[in-house]
Every structure is written in C-alpha cells, then in structure tokens.
Amino acid sequence: MYTTFLFGILMVMLIKALAPMEGITDSVFRQILCDIGKPDLFFTEFLNVEGFCSKGRSNVEHRIKYTEKEHPIIVQLWGNNPAMYAETIAEIKKLDPDGININIGCSVHDVISGGRGSALIKNKPLVKEIIDVVKESLEGTDIPVSVKTRLGFDEVDIEGWIGFLLEQDLDMIVIHGRLSKETYVIPANWKLIGECANLRNKMHSSTKILGNGDLMDVDQGEEYCKEYGLDGFMIGRGILNNPWLFSKRKEIPREERIQTLFKHLTLFKEFWGDTKPFDCQKKYVKAYLRNFDDAGRLRQELLEAKSLEEMVLILKNNL
Predict the structure, then answer these.
(1) pLDDT of 95 higher than 80
(2) CB-based burial of residue 1 (10 Å sphere; 0-12 exposed, 13-18 middle, 19+ buried)?
(3) Which residues does the annotation mark as catalytic?
(4) Per-residue pLDDT reduced to its tens digit, 267-310
(5) Model-level pTM greater than 0.90?
(6) The listed CATH number (1.10.1040.10, 3.10.310.10, 2.40.128.110, 3.20.20.70) that belongs to domain 2-247
(7) Are strands 172-176 and 145-150 parallel, antiparallel or unpaired?
(8) CA geometry: angle 272, 278, 279, nearest 5 deg
C-alpha cells in the first residue's frame, strides 16, 4: 500500500524529504515529526551492508527500525560489496520499506578511504554493479530504487557522472550541491543541481531529481525547485533549527516546545529502553527549546542533567 502511495508522490507532487542524519533522524525523532510537521518522505539512518551482513548485525540494525506511522520511508544503504547489498535487501524486504536508496554521497574520511560513499563516484563499473544487484534483489516488488550523490568527487562532472546515473533508469536521484571534498563552509551550488535537471530533460529520462544542501525552510526549497526545474528537495541540518519546519509554522509557543521535548524523551525511553544512552538525546534540547525568553536558562539545566528522569522532571517543573 505505502509503496504504491510513494509512486504516486514520485509522479505528481513536489517532493519534500528529510535527509538521513546519523544519530539524529532515528525512529523516535521521525515519530515526533509525524505529529508536528511530517515531510513527504522519510529516510532511515545510513545502514552499512557489510556491518549488517557480519556478526555485528545487532550493532547496526537499529538504524532501520521504524513504525507504521513513519511511512512512506526509504531505507538508505551504503557500502561497496554488491553481494552484501543483495543479502541485506533480502532481509529488508520483509520490513515493507517504500524504497531503497544507495548512498554515494557521504564524504566522511573513514567512509571514502575504504572506497565507499562518495568515493564510488570514481568507480562507475562498481556503481553499475551495485545498482543492478539492488534492482535484481527487488524483482517481483514495486519498491523504487534511488541514489543520493554529489556533483562530482574532485571536480564537477554533470555530463559524465550524473549522466551516467541517469542512464541507470533510477526512480530518483538526490543531488547534494557540493563536491565530495567540499565542506559545509562552501555554499551548496543549486544552479549546478538545476543543470543536472536540464540534462535529465535532454536525455528524456523519467528519473526524479531532488536537490539538497543548505536549505533552512520549506519556502526556500520550493523557491529553488521552481527556479531550477527540480522535482523536490531534501532538508537536513535545517530540521535542528526548527523541528516544526515541514509544517511551515513560524511561531511555536513556549509551552508547546517544552511539551514536545517532554514527549520526545518519554518516547525515547519507551522505544529504546536502555539500549541507547540518555546523553544522546541532549542534541535535541536546542532544537526544541529556542525563541522564548528563558530558553537559554532551561537548556543549560537540561544539559547539566545526570539522567533522563532528571531531564523529564526539569521539563515538568517548567510547564
């Protein structure tokens, strides 16, 4: 049902997606976003196929845990072993995902040093093999296949790299508007993402093109899509400035902010139990608690808390 709905989104809508961010966009955060501002598409955290196929599977499989309310949701995979993509997808299909996304965009040193992530941009034969294996593994399903990538590795290569991906008959390509070597200090180049969409049109490809990079709100994303002829956009770090971002709400009352963080922490305890340390939730404190008079004071109290129970009590006392 959900995959059919996703194909509907791919066909007719301007797609608004939330980027996968390691340790941030887990199921708990996504469940909260479902209630306060849900995107058209969720992506899971990155799942390494080699880790999933190893004895250490239990250490990584939490990244693809999701609930019914998070649909439509796309599982993002990374790695450079085609056989392990096939083995991973054989298991993932049982979870009824709404798509498979291959990460060819991550530029973290430990990832690219092993020939994974955006390093794959330099290895088209292996990329083609991976895409073909993923498609073959999904035969008999209607699960879409997509890629998330960059404009090139050392230099912009729209004709060579993006053109190559367009030849693979993918359902969607998400393009981060930077090179692999470029940091967030360098602005994302949306004009070049637009050139990728122009190339798609010249090739008469039906692949959807989404842009990604430096977006802080939905209005900006919609404006860029209109200007550059894109089918949608993906927002990443901007969600931590405003978790209500996809709702387009501008003013969130103090009480609602506190109650939402309270709900988040309560859900975290219910959903993950003791499998994750409570400290990992402190990254959300600034995301939810801002733009009211005593926000700084309250954030400091929460950041100094020694337990999840103490954080919850502080929130209760400030409602």
Answers:
(1) yes
(2) exposed
(3) 106
(4) 999 999 999 999 999 999 999 999 999 999 999 999 999 999 99
(5) yes
(6) 3.20.20.70
(7) parallel
(8) 140
